[in-house]
């Protein structure tokens, strides 16, 4: 009788251990996504200043500037939980921002403007932070996915509503390409 009771207690303790590990992995993934969200918000807040600075020098590049603003607004309006769709829009935004930065090559006065230089440096720093946050999130998502799919964790994961996380990545190969600017 005591042996059976001891086995039941050990199984229950093991289930609690597995459950707590799943909760910990989910919280790390949520924290990592929050880090990406913060960096994307910083970038979105910087874009209007960048656009206004470039507008003065490159008024005839209105289409490029409007595209950046439209993509920024679309990215900010997206629900935070849709990782794949958010990654696609953010990839398009990164590509459009690359075209705006490339405009500086055609406008020497803009290239020398201290506001533009400072905004460009800030944007480059934020882009690096986004990359680091994305790597951290993808690692946390990977760890959670492994726990959710591994035996015996998968027996409890399904019962308690734990599910796999999508990776935050650029899915369109064209988004990975270096932007080209032609005048």
Automatic annotation (TrEMBL):
Q: Does the keyword Lyase apply?
A: no
- Coiled-coil intervals, chain numbering: none
Give the UniProt subcellular location, in the record's own words.
Membrane
Q: Which SUPFAM superfamilies match?
A: LemA-like
Query: Which keywords fit this entry according to its UniProt record?
Result: Membrane, Transmembrane, Transmembrane helix
For membrane topology, the record states: Single-pass membrane protein
Naming one, the record's GO cellular component terms include: membrane
Q: Which residues form the signal peptide?
A: none
Similarity comment: Belongs to the LemA family.
- What's the protein called, per UniProt? LemA family protein
